[in-house]
Amino acid sequence: MTILDGILLSLGLLISITGLIGCILPVLPGPPLSFIALLLLWFVKEEQPFSEQTLWVLGALTVVVTILDYIVPSLGAKKYGASKLGVYLSFVGLVVGIFFIPPWGMIIGGFLGAVIGELISGQKSDKALVAGFGVFMGNLAGVVLKLIASAIMLFYYIYGMF
User: Is this model's pTM higher than 0.70 or not?
Assistant: First the structure.
């Protein structure tokens, strides 16, 4: 192992840990960072640390979890009784919130979108707040999914280093 390999492996570990932190901080793309670290490990190590199939599965997991992170909050709103407009506006709020209120825009935007959608639909404020709570619960579920995926990738990274 060369000094450059050691530096790259250390950088990869730092990226993987940042990916784990990114699962909680919405401003950082957690699972994609964790997967980038695995790719770095894959190309730096002379002897492959895990199978190519494992790399493909973890890549697919990264894509699925990243997509679900945008869908699950709206599903949470629907589960808690939001109307179609509430679910739609919760998704719009998630996307708009990312750009206008980082890093917590997804949570705030999704919540406000669901509440506003329910109020426009003629629901009472308590029902609108329940729909907003559903978005919040969906966000929590998304965070848990991302944490699990990134923790698995961090495990593979540490295992593959040695």
Answer: yes
